[in-house]
Amino acid sequence: MRCPFCRHPDCRVIDSREVDDGKATRRRRSCAGCGRRFTTVEEAVLTVVKRSGVTEPFSREKVVRGVRRACQGRPVGEDALQQLAHRVEETVRASGSAEIPSHEVGLAILGPLKELDEVAYLRFASVYRSFSSIEDFEKEIADLRGRLPGKQPSRRVGSCGSE
Ligand SMILES: [Zn+2]
After folding, report:
1. How far is the CA of 27 from the centre of ligand 1 (A)?
2. Which single residue of 2, 79, 85, 126 could bond 63 by disulfide (Cβ 3.0 to 4.6 Å)?
3. Whole-angstrom distance, CA of residue 113 vs CA of residue 120
4. Whether the predicted pLDDT of 121 surpasses 90
């Protein structure tokens, strides 16, 4: 970290605090050369590692785009999408790791999306979990039904994949 005034390479951190819910750190620094003080804000970088090994910075906008596609024709507003992306970011950041496998981002999307819109959830899950048969959908739908309060099925219909 070079001093912005005299380009001196050494500086002392005199104060450090987390801002934006810990997503960034604001540091107050004092230059060892000229003694002037300045502030730096360092954002905690979150990297998504794809299955191919390619990495890219986590992007809330990208989450929104993926979910928006699943929400086509559904009564889901832009605000709800932004909120969902915010929750996803909080979830993946909460792991404390700087590198997140892309499938964990997908997992973090599934939970809030299920609450938001079940049809969009099924669409997203079918791609994300690569549903290959109608049974995969049936199982997921049975699971969704089972979660609805007051609508617990009294008996299980069918015999596929008992969990
Ligand atoms: Zn300086």
Report:
1. 15
2. 85
3. 7
4. yes
